[in-house]
Design goal:
The complex is a heterotrimer of chains A (279), B (556) and C (271). With 279 residues, chain A is mainly alpha-helical. Chain A contains 14 helices and no strands. Chain A starts with a helix and ends in a 5-residue tail after the last helix. By secondary structure, chain B is of the alpha+beta class. Chain B is elongated. Chain B starts with a helix and ends with a strand. About 1% of the residues of chain B have low confidence. Chain C is built from 12 helices and no strands. In chain C, helix 2 packs across helix 12, helix 3 packs across helix 11 and helix 5 packs across helix 10. The radius of gyration of chain C is 23 Å and the shape is globular. Chain C starts with a helix and ends with a helix. The chains are: A mainly alpha (279), B alpha+beta (556), C mainly alpha (271).
Chain lengths: 279, 556, 271
């Protein structure tokens, strides 16, 4: 009985947590009339308070069609986001996975200190590193260039840390037996490390995706040319007079995230846990 | 699970890719293509064209005598006639009848006039008589008066002469003159004797002085010799002079004596003369005075009589003149004979006209080459005072007339070049000029334009279209008219500008308000500075543009 | 070693060396580049904006993190051991992680507008509305936003911690006659203590990311109650006050370094 009361109580915050998705869906399906009537108080048209129904009264895909067919600018943003996210994740795979394997399965002098540095860097918020990154990008002439966003993020130490956790869990015994079978370091990494640590890699990627799909500070700081901006940065610039557009664009931004979330939820949890569990 | 995730994501991305392409395509389809041009320097022409007709420059009216019966009309309205061509005929019988009547009438009047003249002559003779009498009276009066005046004048002159004569002879008469003459003569003789005496004395003194001079000279010569030879003293000058004077003293004294005697005699003679004269004067003075008074009196009287005569003449002449005037006084003016003769003249002229008409056989011919524009007479009816037939005179030239709206007034002016295009597809007539421009008499909203056209170029009544193309000064900023839009009396146009957007550089249009200075059906001239020559101006668009619209430029 | 090298080179190039440069710059003048000692540090400590931002950030941390930890702990304890339904709820709490900040900004703007949804709801209960984003309540919005976003994350972490406690201990306690509350205070909390350090630090780190919402909703200069260190950094950066940024970055790095040391200590202790 107590259990059900608990559920009943928890449903409210759970609903609140998920409500934004419903809100955006509702908004995106509203017609222009309905939207402007509902938003009128916010836009300063009339007194009183904004009204919002749970579901649209007269659902329409008008704004979807308009967005998908009439607004090429949105797609530029969308592909900017895809490009940056994909670039960063690919870079992390290429650099971070071996590094994580190296930290997990090899012993070399200064490893502890080095790993410590990685952890410290992982914890640094962007603002602390903003200036130093700016200086580097300026030196490399990568300012106002998407590569300037991708490269530093690709060398982020956070995925290394996550994957390290998973690679660490690969039993040494298997590696030893493989080595006995005559496998080299690389073979061991490719044939044993990657398959067994795949959960960690996916976890890192899922966390990474949710992080970088949301990238705001870096492009805001380093990209002056708006045609290079990702969607996340462009969206808030849509003013409320084009609320329908903003809703649909929000949904469009949301969709890949939701896909990744739904597909990778387990890995997500594992990844979260990996950042915290004991060594 | 993992496969599903990858598949869904890949599917989503694929869908997005498709829509990316679709939206790009839809976008470029939705964007209107526009043609652009740049503002440039142009001359704005203002073609004025109007349809009109060919008209005659002059109309010629054909008249004939009034009140004639029209026998036949040989022309129709619109018919072209040569000079001398028969226009219409009058009835000869009627004409001859009228001539006869007129002749009789004339004869009557002539007789009447003769009567008038004869009676007038009689009265004129009487009048001349009395006038001649008066004139004679007048002359007589003048003559008589003049004679009286002459008499008076003669009298006055005589009196004056008498007075004058008296005044002249007032100092003495001839008898007394001889005494005075003798005395005078004596006096003159004495005077001459005295003068002789004076001359002798002076001659003597002269002689003495000469002698003295000669002696002195001699003496000085002698003394010079003496001084050099011997030591004896010479005589002084004074001693010499005294010597000589002593020698001639006697002669001189005698001469002086003689002179003094002559002077005494002269003085005595003069005294005698003076005494005589004084006596004479004292005795004459008393009688002299009375005579003179009388004479003066007479002269005065004569003068008054003369003046009286002059006055009388004036009165008499005036009276006589009055008589003449009375005699000349005109009778009440009487021109009846002249009036009658004028009437006769008129009748004669009319008759002559009728006779001439008869001479022509009652045929009226065209005076000029032209076109019959109006016939006012009808066969069988009588002619009136007015025009019988109106002719368009071809020989005086033709003109083209057309109406244009007043709004085009500024685009046409006298002497502007005109091209005339005949309606019958004839060849264009070039090189003409606008002759007159005037407000249409019926519709003030229209202007009449006339153009003189060369002879034989077109026929009267033919239609044609004129074209005048007035060229403006060259304007710096001209745009095609298709680029111009108007809203609430504000002209504007769109210029294409590159805008940086997410999709790269895009062409958008910007509205630019402009002021139009001049325009025709193709181009508009804008105020300087409203548009630069570097701006791309939209001249043509697939759809209605609004400021900020994206456009694509037509490849040109 | 070879496996680590590419990553390490990148880290050195993109993170380490420039950060060392930043440390150097924090002791030099912005324009001249001459050594100025700790002048930059003195400057920022005297700077009112820095004081405000630091105060807000600290306040935010002190309010949010305990709140988040307690709420998420309770939910985690409740969900722990629940199977199907529990998983669904857990997923629901994780959803905000997946919602891009940009998407949610729109909702935030409409929700907290002075004539927005929230005030509309409050008005129905007769409570006068307020301009949430432009009053001291902006801070509350920030707190709400943070908890909404990170609740799921912390729940997962707590559940992981709870899983680490052997069921045998509970069994033993129950045998000893301990009640539910006693079990919780005597067994659960002590056993979760090592996790607490970790979760605290992670929550703290995630708290930095709340800037995104704050920035996107309210811009460069939000209401002063939510003016965070990140805003300050951003504004200094835009003004090119490099010396101030450098000094502030070093201070921040130091603070974070200390926290990571704490975390490390926690791990070590656990061992």
């Amino acid at each position: 009985m107590r259990k059900y009361i608990g559920f009943a109580i928890l449903i409210i915050p759970a609903f609140v947590a998920c409500y934004p998705i419903l809100f955006l869906l509702t908004g995106s399906l509203m017609g222009q009339m309905e939207l402007s009537r509902n938003l009128a108080p916010v836009l300063g048209g009339t007194d009183g308070y904004m009204e919002w129904s749970l579901l649209p009264m007269y659902p329409t895909f008008r704004y979807y069609v308009e967005l998908l067919l009439d607004t090429p600018a949105i797609f530029v943003m969308f592909w900017n986001s895809v490009k940056m996210t994909a670039g960063i994740l690919a870079g992390q795979l290429l650099v971070g996975v071996p590094a994580a394997w190296g930290f997990a399965k090899f012993k070399f002098p200064g490893k502890k200190i080095l790993f410590m540095i990685y952890i410290i860097l992982m914890m640094m918020p962007f603002q602390v590193l903003m200036l130093s990154e700016y200086l580097v990008l300026d030196q490399l002439h990568l300012l106002d260039d998407q590569l300037g966003i991708i490269l530093p993020a690709a060398f982020s130490t956070f995925p290394v840390f996550i994957m390290y956790r998973f690679f660490d869990g690969v039993p040494d015994a298997i590696i030893e037996s493989a080595k006995l079978d005559g496998a080299g370091h690389l073979q061991v990494f490719v044939l044993i490390g990657l398959p067994l640590g795949s959960a960690g890699i996916v976890s890192a990627m899922v966390l990474g995706f949710l992080e970088y799909w949301n990238l705001i500070e870096q492009p805001l700081t380093f990209l002056k040319d708006k045609s290079l901006w990702p969607m996340a940065l462009f969206l808030p610039n849509i003013d409320l007079n084009h609320a329908g557009m903003a809703f649909v664009t929000s949904i469009m931004t949301l969709i890949p995230s939701i896909f990744v979330f739904m597909g990778g939820q387990d890995y997500l949890e594992q990844g979260i846990v990996a950042s915290a569990v004991k060594e | 699970m993992r496969k599903k995730l990858v598949g869904a994501l890949a599917g989503f991305l694929a869908v997005m890719l498709v829509f990316t392409i679709l939206s790009r395509a839809a976008d470029s389809v939705g964007i209107p293509r526009v043609s652009t041009d740049r503002a440039g320097k142009k001359v704005i022409g203002h073609p004025v064209s109007a349809a009109g007709k060919i008209e005659q420059n002059q109309e010629q009216a054909v008249f004939t005598e009034a009140n004639q019966r029209v026998k036949a009309i040989h022309v129709n309205e619109g018919q072209q006639v040569e000079e001398g061509e028969l226009l219409f005929e009058l009835d000869m019988e009627e004409l001859e009848d009228q001539i006869l009547t007129a002749k009789e009438e004339l004869e009557k009047k002539k007789l009447q006039r003769q009567d008038t003249i004869s009676s007038k002559e009689v009265s004129a003779a009487n009048k001349a008589n009395s006038r001649a009498n008066a004139e004679i009276d007048y002359q007589n009066a003048i003559d008589a008066a003049d004679a009286a005046i002459q008499q008076a004048k003669d009298k006055w002159d005589a009196a004056k002469q008498a007075l004058k004569n008296y005044k002249k002879s007032g100092t003495g008469d001839s008898g007394e003159d001889s005494v005075a003459g003798t005395l005078q003569k004596t006096c003159n003789e004495k005077k001459a004797a005295y003068e002789n005496a004076v001359g002798e004395r002076e001659a003597t003194e002269q002689e003495i002085n000469e002698k003295i001079q000669a002696a002195l000279k001699e003496n000085s010569e002698t003394s010079d010799e003496t001084k050099s030879g011997s030591g004896s003293d010479p005589l002084t000058e004074k001693e010499i002079e005294a010597q000589i004077r002593a020698q001639y003293q006697a002669a001189l004294d005698m001469a002086i004596q003689k002179e003094e005697t002559a002077l005494k005699e002269l003085q005595a003679a003069e005294a005698a003369l003076d005494e005589y004269k004084q006596n004479q004067a004292a005795s004459a003075a008393a009688s002299q005075q009375t005579t003179k008074e009388q004479l003066k009196q007479q002269a005065e009287e004569a003068r008054i009589a003369y003046e009286q005569a002059v006055q009388d003449k004036e009165t008499q002449v005036n009276n006589a003149a009055k008589g003449v005037r009375d005699a000349n006084l005109a009778d009440a003016s009487n021109h009846s004979d002249q009036v009658e003769s004028i009437g006769i003249d008129q009748d004669e002229r009319n008759l002559k006209k009728l006779e001439k008409l008869k001479e022509w056989g009652g045929k009226i011919l065209s005076p000029v080459k032209g076109v019959v524009s109006k016939v006012f007479i009808t066969t069988g009816d009588r002619t009136t005072d007015g025009t019988a037939v109106l002719l368009a005179d071809i020989s005086s030239g033709l003109r083209f007339t057309a109406q244009i709206p007043v709004s085009q007034e500024k685009y046409i002016a006298r002497l502007d070049e005109v091209i005339l295009k005949p309606d019958n597809n004839g060849k264009d007539i070039q090189g003409l000029t606008v002759d007159t421009i005037s407000t249409n008499s019926e519709d003030p909203g229209l202007l009449d334009v006339t153009v003189q056209i060369p002879e034989n170029a077109l026929e009267i009544g033919a239609g044609a279209t004129m074209k005048v193309n007035k060229k403006s000064e060259p304007y710096e900023i001209c745009v095609p008219l298709s680029a111009l839009y108007k809203e609430d009396n504000q002209y504007y146009l769109f210029v294409v500008e590159g805008t940086e957007t997410i999709l790269g550089t895009e062409q958008t249009v910007r509205r630019l308000d402009v002021t139009v200075i001049d325009q025709n059906s193709e181009y508009a001239a804008l105020e300087n500075g409203s548009v630069t020559t570097e701006q791309d101006i939209v001249t043509d668009s697939e759809k209605l543009l609004e400021a900020g619209d994206r456009v694509r430029l037509n490849e040109s | 070693m070879l496996f680590v090298l590419p990553s390490f080179i990148g880290v050195v190039i993109f993170l380490l060396v420039p950060f060392l440069d930043v440390i150097r710059r924090s002791f030099t003048g912005a324009v001249s580049g001459a050594f100025v000692g700790i002048e930059n540090y003195q400057t920022i400590f005297k700077n009112a904006a820095f004081a405000l931002a630091a105060k807000n950030t600290l306040r935010f941390t002190i309010v949010c993190i305990p709140l988040l930890l307690v709420v998420s702990l309770f939910i985690a304890v409740f969900l722990h051991g629940q199977k199907q339904f529990g998983n669904i709820l857990k997923s629901s709490f994780l959803v905000p992680m997946a919602i891009p900040v940009a998407s949610v900004v729109l909702l935030w703007r409409l929700l907290f507008h002075s004539s927005g949804i929230l005030n509309g709801i409050l008005a129905k209960f007769g409570i006068p509305g307020m301009d949430w984003m432009n009053s001291k309540y902006a801070f509350g919005v920030l707190v709400f936003s943070y908890i909404w976003k990170n609740l799921g994350y912390d729940i997962v972490l707590w559940i992981a911690g709870l899983s680490g406690i052997s069921p045998d201990i509970y069994e033993a306690a129950k045998v000893d006659g301990a009640g539910g509350l006693q079990c919780f205070t005597r067994i659960t909390l002590p056993n979760l203590l090592p996790s607490l350090y970790t979760i605290t630090v992670l929550s703290f780190l995630n708290s930095f990311k709340v800037f995104r919402e704050a920035y996107l909703v309210a811009g460069d200069y939000p209401h002063e109650s939510m003016y965070l260190i990140q805003h300050l950094f951003n504004n200094w950066f835009r003004e090119l006050s490099l010396d101030k940024i450098a000094a502030a970055a070093v201070i921040n790095a130091l603070v974070i370094f200390c926290l990571v040391m704490l975390l490390q200590k926690a791990w070590v202790k656990e061992e």
